[in-house]
Amino acid sequence: MALKTTRLLKRLREDFQLSIITLMGLFGVLGISPYALYRLLHGNYLVGIADIIIVLSTILAVLYAWHTRDTVKPGIFLTAVFSVSATLIAINLGVNGLFWIYPLILFNFFMAPPGKALLATVLVMLSLAAHALLVPGSVFDSHYQMVSFLVTGMMASMLSFIFALRTRTQRDQLQLLAIHDPLTGARNRRAMNEELKIAVASHRRHRDRFGLLVMDLDHFKQINDRFGHHVGDQVLMAFVELIQRDSRKEDRLFRFGGEEFLLLLPNTELDGLHAAAQHLRQCVAEGLKSPGGPVTVSIGGAVLRSGEHWESWLQRADECLYRAKSEGRNRAVIDDEQRPAAAQTASGR
After folding, report:
1. How many domains does the chain divide into?
2. Residues 168 and 201 in one domain
3. Which candidate, 133, 188, 244, 284, has a CA 20 to 30 Å from the CA of 117?
């Protein structure tokens, strides 16, 4: 039980939007349920049913987000449900129902993308204004009160929109920095570990095939020593650009050491991994230059085996890279898939 709780808390810490949906969902259920019960007991069935719909929709959306890891659809769904329900409640209760519109504005900008949240809020305002004009006295006591509400509501919406847009932009930038190498733009080791775990899980559940290539630039230290680290940085950036250009769109490149990179290749069998390794090795030899001349790369590769841990998979590819470098560099060595893992010996570089 303690382990399960720890995992749940870890997911909440790592997934900001899931934590927001869960927290807002909890507040929504705890805050609205008493009102639903009160209104049903006092015969206000329309508003009471609307409250119940909100509570049930909130519970279902939160469960969906936890089960699927998709937080976008539940957020938009809850925004729509809450907006429609709040509009009906305001129409039914009149001025007393308008107090729910202001927390609705905040709720929408927490749950949905800023543009969609602003659209939902504007539609709520227009719907209330249209109903008030068609049925005078049903929502507002006077036109002055209606205009005051619309102005203050739109001011709150625009301020929330600006804040939400800025916050989302900053969060996206932080997430980008958290998983990407700042120099080359390739994904970093943290992202690599997670992607390898996901690949292993996908192979176990759906029998998807994955290959990986571990690449190390040959004699890279000499480039730094002779021409300076700024030249070495330029070579690294050029290498990443070349690999991303000459590999498939679905392949994912990671930098997990100074001049060490890993390329994860989904839907790849042993023959395809051989072909990809030789192709990339040749592209680097022909296209990557430094002030001292051409730069080459040594490559080790392995295809994921059934039941294999991601660290064992990475180790097999790393051992092949060691063999490629010890056999003269500028070559690719791919692990023989038929050879049992126990027969391989660990080697350091």
Report:
1. 2
2. no
3. 133
Domain that holds residue 197: 189-343
Question: Which ranges of the chain would DSSP assign to H, the alpha helix?
Answer: 2-14, 16-41, 45-68, 72-93, 101-111, 114-134, 143-179, 189-206, 220-227, 229-246, 270-287, 310-326
H or E segment to which residue 302 belongs: strand 297-303
What one-letter code names the amino acid at 26? L
User: Which tens digit of pLDDT belongs to each residue from 50-102?
Assistant: 889 889 999 999 999 998 888 899 999 999 988 998 898 888 888 888 888 99
Helix axes 189-206, 143-179, angle to 10 degrees: 90
d(CA 251, CA 182): 20
Residue 59 and residue 157 share a domain? yes
Residue 148 pLDDT: 93
Residue 281 lies in a domain: yes
- Within this chain, do residues 147 and 221 fall inside the same structural domain, yes or no? no
**Are residues 103 and 139 in contact, defined by beta-carbon separation less than 8 angstroms?**
no
Q: What is the pLDDT of residue 161?
A: 93
- Residue 1's pLDDT is 67
Q: Are 189 and 262 in contact (CB under 8 A)?
A: no
In a domain, 348, yes or no: no
User: Catalytic residue at 14?
Assistant: no
Task: Check residue 47 and give its pLDDT.
Answer: 80
Q: Which of 14, 194, 195, 259 is catalytic?
A: 259
What predicted TM-score, i.e. pTM, was given to this entire model? 0.61
DSSP output for 108-130:
HHHHS-HHHHHHHHHHHHHHHHH
Q: Which residues of 172-185 are buried (b: 16+ CB within 10 A; e: fewer)?
A: eeeeeeeebbeebe
pLDDT lower than 70: segments of the chain = 1, 337-349
pLDDT at 337: 59
Q: What is the DSSP letter of 301?
A: E
Q: What residue has token string 């994955």? A: 210
